[in-house]
Amino acid sequence: MVDKNEIKGGAKEIGGKVKEAAGKVVGSERMKAEGKIDQAEGKAQKNYGKVKDAVKDQVGR
Question: Coiled-coil stretches, from where to where (predicted)?
């Protein structure tokens, strides 16, 4: 089963990619940097969800 953190993290990661691309289009270094930060946060949250889900699977056995 997919943990809610995996979903939210994936969404934040995608949003960060969009923000980074928009920053490149408009020439905003700040927006590009914020997009990269959002991607890193999203990836971390997604990985946390995966680990949490794996632990639940092992404990549930």
Answer: none
Distance of CA 60 to the CA centre of its chain: 27
Tokens of 26: 């408009």
Domain that holds residue 38: 4-55
Amino acid at 51: V
61: pLDDT strictly greater than 70? no
Concatenating the DSSP letter of every residue in 3-60 gives -HHHHHHHHHHHHHHHHHHHHHHHT-HHHHHHHHHHHHHHHHHHHHHHHHHHHHHHHH
Q: How many domains does the chain have?
A: 1
Residue 10 included in any domain:
yes
- The model carries a pTM of 0.86
Residue 61 lies in a domain: no
